[in-house]
Amino acid sequence: MAFPLLLLIPAGLAVPFALAGHGLGTLGRVGLRGADRRTWIRGGATLLGGVAAALYTWGLLLIALAVRDADDGGTGSSPLRPCRTPGQWERALTVVDHTVDYVPLRFVCETKDGGRYAAESVPGYVNPAVLGFAPAAVGCAAAAALVPKDRPERDPAV
């Protein structure tokens, strides 16, 4: 269960910086005033994608900490620490295992009777924000592909 986290977290740490660098570099290469609509939209798409990747990586880091706490063992490890929800102590006592769901991102506690519930390991804003920024980035990228390139104005004297 922790193996995908070990692959996704380093990639998730690099991708936001790469996307932000590409987006800002594209705008910086032509200058803010010299950028056409297509360049602005492409730059916005990469920046939105970088924000989505950063938020998803933040959630992955929190899930990795929850997995580490759940797999720790030792004194005070039963019931699993991430599965302890305030006001629901009885439910936490029936937890027998845990899993990780990557879409939506959440730490899932499995109970003796076959039930499942999401622990409060990932803040409530992470999944909706990723669900907002990622499609916005894809939409901007598609819009940039549909916008024709602005042609430089020709000097009528030539």
UniProtKB/TrEMBL annotation:
Keywords for the protein's UniProt record, in alphabetical order: Membrane, Transmembrane, Transmembrane helix
Superkingdom of origin organism: Bacteria
Residues that span the membrane, as ranges: 44-67
Name of the protein in question: DUF4190 domain-containing protein
Species of the source: Streptomyces gibsoniae
